[in-house]
Amino acid sequence: MTVQPIPAPGVIEATTAHRVEQPFEGLLEAPPPATSDGFPHLDALRAVGALLVLTTHTAFWAGDYLRHGSVGALLARCDVGVAIFFVLSGFLLSRGWLLAAARGGPRPATGHYLWKRLLRVAPLALLTAALALTFINANRDLSTGARVSAALLLSTITEGAFPAGLTHLWSLAVEVAFYLLLPLLMLIAVGRRAPLRTGRVTAVLVAMVGVTVWWHLDGAARYGTGSHVSSGQLLPAFLDWFAVGIALAWVQVRAVTEGRTRTPWHALAAQPGTCWAIAAGLMLVAATPIAGPVMLDAPTEAESLTKNLLYATIGGLLVLPGVLRATPSTPTTYDRLLTHPASRHLGWISYGVFCLHLPMLHLVMALTGWTLFDANLPGLWLLTLVASLVAAELAYRLVERPALRLKSRHPLRRRLPADAPADDPADCGSTAGAPSTEPSATTQT
Fold it and tell me: By C-alpha distance, which of 133, 119, 53, 154 is closest to 432?
C-alpha cells in the first residue's frame, strides 16, 4: 500500500465535491471503484446503517428488547438502518438520470447500469448464502429449491422467509427489486430526451408514496393472505423510502443546474446537528406503542404505516445534510467525524458487515455457548462486531473490489460523449440492509 503525503488538518479542497481532507488521508486503502466521492459524508452513513442493523440483531438474540424499558424498545428500533440504506440508494442511483435530464444530455444506459448493480450485489450475496447454507446446522435439511431461492434472493416470494443466517437478506431482495424498477421510474419521470420537468418528477414521487400507503393499509393483507409470500417485506412496502432519496436528488440537481440553493431544505441541511436531533426525537416516538410492538406480534395497519413514515423521515433527515449542505471553509465536528478516512473506510466495507454479520452472529453464539434470549448483550455485540469487521474487510479486498473492477468490461456499454454527466448512477455504490429477528426463518421484523 502506498502512503500518500499527509495534508495539513482541516484543509478544504476547493472542488465541486467539497471534499474534506483529513490527517491520515491516504493511510487507508483507496476507495473502491464505485464510491460517492462527490458526497463524502455518505460513506459514513452507510456504516451507521450497518451498525444499527447489527445492533438490533444482537439485542434481539440477547433478549434485550423487553428487558430495559425504553432502552430495549430503542434497540428494537435500530432497524431504522434499512431506511438509511434505501434513502441513500434512492438518491445515488436516481441522480444520474435527473442530472442528465437537467443538462439535456443522454440518459444512463440501462444495460450498463444493471451490469454494475449485478457486480455490486451478487458476488458477496452469493458468498454469504454459501457460507450460511453450508455451515449453519439449521439449514442442513433445506431442499434444493429453498437453497436456490435463497441464493437468488427470492425466498420472501417462494418460501415466505429466508433460511437461518440469511433472514436479513429480505431487504437486499427489496433493494434489487428497486434496481430493476428504477429505469422504468426514471423513464416516466424524465423521459429519454425531454428536459427535467417538475410535474413528471412530482407525479412519480407521489405515486411511490401512494403505493406504500395503500400497501400498508390494504395491499399487504390482500395479497399476503393464504400464500407463501411475505407481503410485508416486498418493494411496495418501502417505495416511499426510496422516494425520499429521489426527492433529495431532485432538489440537489436543481441546486447544481439552476442555482436553487435558498430553499427550506437547504436551510435545514445547513444545520446537521438540528437534523440529527430531530431524527433522535423521532426515534423516541418510534419506540412508543404508536409504531407497533417491538417483538414478533403483528402490528396493526396503522401502526405499520406510522413506523414506516417515521423511518422515512428519519432516513431523510440523516441524509439531507450530506447531500444539500455546502461544506464550510472550516470543517465542523460533523465534517471531521463523517469524512474522516476511518469513517469512510467503514462505509466502504459496510455491505460486507451487513451481509456477513448474521453468519458471524451464529458463529459467536456457537463458540460462546450462549443461548437465544440469554446472552450478554455487550459481549455479544462486541464479538459479533469484531468478527463482522474482519470478515467484511477480507470480503472487501478479495471479493468486492475485484468484482467492481469488471464494471467497465460490460460488452454492451454505451460510449458517452465527452460532455455527458460523469456520474452514472451505478457508479455510486449502495448498501442494502435490514433487520431480521433470526434465528428461525419465521421470526423476522
Answer: 53
